Amino acid sequence: MSIEISAAVFKFDVLRYLCYNIKLSNYERTYFGALYMIYLDNAATAKPCAEAVKAAASCAFGNPSSLHGLGIEAERVISEAKKTILKKLGKEGEIYFTSGATESNNLAVFGTSNALKRRGNRIVTTAIEHPSVAEPMKRLEEQGFEVVRLSPCKYEDFEQALIDAVDEDTILLSFMAVNNETGFITDSKRVYNEVKKKFPRCVVHVDGVQGFCKVPLHADIISLSAHKIHGLKGVGALYKTKETRLLPIVYGGGQQGGLRSGTEPVELIAAFSAAVKAYPDLSEKFALLKEKLVEALAKLPQVTINSRHAVDNIVNFSVAGVRSEIMLHFLEEREIYVSSGSACSRGKVSPVTAALGISAKDADCAVRVSFCGENTVQDVEKLVEGIKDGIKRFRR
Question: Is there a contact between 390 and 331 (Cβ–Cβ < 8 Å)?
Answer without folding.
Answer: yes
